Structures
1.
Amino acid sequence: CAVWTLSGDEDGIAHMVLCASHARLLLLDLNREKGKDKKRVRKRDRAKRWKSRHANEGQATQMMMDWINKNAEMLMESEDWLLLPEKMVQFVVKRDTLSINSETVVVKALNRWCNSVCNKKGVMATLKVKYKILKNLKCDVRWLTLAKIELEKCQAQYGLLTSREFRTLLQAAEHSDCSCPLPAAMQKHRSRMKKQRCGVVHFRKPR
């Protein structure tokens, strides 16, 4: 059977995140019985084992998601972040409950991950290549929570947005009540892109 443990440290959790991605994003395969054993187990015992296994899965999954929420910056700055597949990266950056001090952390993390993907493929990390790799992921960035100067700095440093995307997002950042449409791919995610992540407040330790 596959045994999973929570060590509580960066390497252990990040490693578990990596492994979880190979189990359809977070379903931990605990105590899987071999085919021969299943034939010998009565229905009642199988039901009990199934219930216990899925209870463990739910608990382990929740513990892992809580760790990701609380330690998002640590995970995104780690080397293990660069090894995650796209679906797992998207799972992380989509979360409302990430505890990060600024959305610039997410932008920087996506840039690092994108550059790593390019290195593995042996291609130059040009702006055109970045646009293609991050086509889906960048819609999960809360661009509209950034101040104008932060947005400008992110674009100058990393260049993850097309000129049209940057221009329309900058216009929206300058005017809080701006309703001008964003590029089609981003417009449908507009409400998410203006929603502040609540992790810092949610996980703040009581004084």
2.
Amino acid sequence: GARELPLPALRPLGVVKVGAAVDDLEQARKELVVEVRVGQRLLASWSAADPIDGNPDFVAAAGRAASAPKAPGQMAVEELFLYGVEQERDGEEEAAAEIYEQVLGRDPRHVAALLKLAWRSYRAADFQRAEGYIARALARDGSDPRIHYVAGVVYRAAQRWGLAQDALWAAIRYGGPPAPAYAQLGEIAIHRKRYEEAKSILRRARS
């Protein structure tokens, strides 16, 4: 039967080892199926019945030279996005931004890439550009709390207080982490000199 195994923190292009005991090794060699999922989202899969490299042991073939890393143009969209994340973590922000744009060239409404570029535009104080990325993300999924939170932060920075509040409340309503959104809402209330409202909201951020 299917067995779920927790994975440690995944690092793009890194290596994670997970072990599991099996009762019948020979049967496992023929029937083993490995899937990597985040929630219901399938990131990767491998089947002993149809191994990618013709090797049913799910290990590198003895004596076989390791294959060269894929060029970005050969990567699937999700692989390309994760490559961009890796570049960003290594401090290569310009390279990462170019990769996220390449992702959008292949999937114009890729939410994660749009949000990465929205944050980048926000940090550059290019709020109009950030709002453009947010609008495209919302067109893909209007109930994603991540999008609404980023929208709230950007609108707040642009001093569009009403839109910021609406977006941040939406982020909470759609199930996003409430504390960061409450903190943003509390700071907006302080800026607007609504101090009692701010105290109430900030108490909720700490709870």
3.
Amino acid sequence: RYFATDKLTLMSILGYSYDGDMVGNYSYIDGENIVHTYSNVADYQRVWITFNPTYTPFDWLELNADILYGYRKFNDGGVMNSYNEFSAQFRLSADLWKGARFSYSANLQDPDFAVSYNPQVKRQHLMFMDSFGITQNFGSKVNVSLGVSNPWKKYFNDKREIESPQLHTITMTRSLARTVWVRVSYDFGKFKDFVKSARRGARNSDRDR
């Protein structure tokens, strides 16, 4: 982390991971059917770098971003595959009048990419998502939030693609994108009790044998 100025902070992380026997998604053709299952990937490597700037031009306004670029490489029983990955997120939060706060976030990413380790995937299909929200506190107990997600589009068109020497499939999924939400919370009080610690520590008798 580097404090460039009293208002700008820069942070970057370089990472590497290796898994010699990872379980990943796998698809193959069985007669006239396509079977989707799981398989032990013989070798999986990933290297990535993140860049995270945070800028606070005023006491009531904060902007920050998360940018990731990476490279994944698979060796699935001698079948090699590798591809690049990218994602970006931008967030803004601002204090309005007393007890009120506005927030906005925008994301450019593949919704299934971060959690799906498929050695047959060769490319990302990025999707843009964003949301607005206003939160109002009424005293110390009542909190009301109102927001909208993806106001600029009604539907998502999600594209998933897998490719191997045996098959090449493209799946298109259409889902509702625009949503409006309202949340009301009430704090009934603080938990005043506590868990008492044992006066005598536990002893493992197996170690004494």
4.
Amino acid sequence: LCCLWCPELVAQHEKADSLKQVLATTDDVALQIKILNYLTNQYLYVSTDTSTHYADRALELAKASHLEKELSFVYRLKGIIDFHSGKLNSAITYYDSSLVLRKKLHDVQGEVLILNNKALAYQHLGSQEIAKNMFFQALELAEKHALAPNQADICNNLGMHYKGIAAYDSAMHFYQKSLDINLTLENTAEVALIKSNIATINFHRNDVL
């Protein structure tokens, strides 16, 4: 296990402390929101209350300043916080608010991210058909605009979807697509994860046979 003082954690704490100092002194609202978003992410898996505190500050600033791009980012973060807190319907509401702005700003990659986030939320709600259709909607958009990392992520999620309903051939198809893209991108960590997912599918196939 990594100790509390490993170099990566120390660097993260130092960066967070440095950004908090900038936050306290800068008058640049867009920069303030960017820092608050960073801090929201940093505390997401550490303290939901702290993460929410920073996200709410960012939301208030973005709304007051009418900064739509920044607001679209904050809405997504609020959705992610609620998703991890099990507040799935609230998460979807925030994702929808972000999606409206992403479309208005012609932020295609942002649209893909939100559709993927929404699909995961519906999946956790047990609405598998809605989730599947949304994954495919996101994948179509990602393929149209050659967003390879997003394609890989969505294909992995579709693999998980089909694995969950024991449609192992379909699961293998999408896991393999994700693996091929990640190999091209030389994304070592994701390659290892997808290979593990594929091994699980092979195990289930053999078990069925």
